[in-house]
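User: Could you go from structure to sequence for me? I need the amino acid at each position, not a summary. Structure tokens:
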């Protein structure tokens, strides 16, 4: 794996601390591939995360969103009482975290046919949205009067 040094960017950028911290964390993270998941873009500001959780029930899962981090945790409750001859369906406890961008909110979560689907939307506040600035015109006579004064 390749590592990147972000030091030159620190010298010429202001206010991007969180972005560089996240990139640095991502480089160092050892990725566990369980449970498998998809991230879909459903529109300009809508997303869906789908996790394949075969063998889990909704009451064995916890979904929390706090301080820009979405956490999905799962723990089987009755694993000790079963004796398997062969176990191909993984049911080990897991904790999967997703970093959310600013203004991304979790709107809902549903569990159907072994898939946990989490709906997200980016809601940018009105004050942060781009707005069009009207360009006014000043009559030539007014400019001449301003120069004469």
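Assistant: Here is the amino acid at each position, in order:
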């Amino acid at each position: 794996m390749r590592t990147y040094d972000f030091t030159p960017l620190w010298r010429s950028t202001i206010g991007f601390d969180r972005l560089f911290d996240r990139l640095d964390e991502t480089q160092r993270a050892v990725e566990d591939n369980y449970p498998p998941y998809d991230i879909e873009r459903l529109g300009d500001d809508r997303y869906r995360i789908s996790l394949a959780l075969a063998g889990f029930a909704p009451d064995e899962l916890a979904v929390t969103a706090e301080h820009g981090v979405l956490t999905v945790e799962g723990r089987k409750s009755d694993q000790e009482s079963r004796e398997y001859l062969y176990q191909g369906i993984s049911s080990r406890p897991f904790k999967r975290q997703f970093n959310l961008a600013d203004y991304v909110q979790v709107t809902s979560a549903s569990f159907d046919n072994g898939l946990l689907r989490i709906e997200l939307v980016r809601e940018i506040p009105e004050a942060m949205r781009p707005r069009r600035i009207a360009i006014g015109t000043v009559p030539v006579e007014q400019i001449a009067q301003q120069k004469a004064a």
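One structural detail worth keeping in mind: The two ends are 69 Å apart (CA to CA).
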